[in-house]
Amino acid sequence: MTTDILGVLLAGGQSLRMGHADKFLLQHGDRTLLQYCVDLARPQVDQLVISANGDPTRLEAYGLPVIPDFWPDHPGPLAGIISVMVWAQKARKDYAWLASFATDTPHFPLDLVARLRWRAESQNAKVAFAATERDNHYTFALWSTQLLSELLSRFAHGERALHRIAAELGACQEVFQDGTAFANVNTPAEWQALNQLQN
Question: Least C-beta-crowded within 10 Å: which of 17, 109, 142, 177?
Answer without folding.
Answer: 177
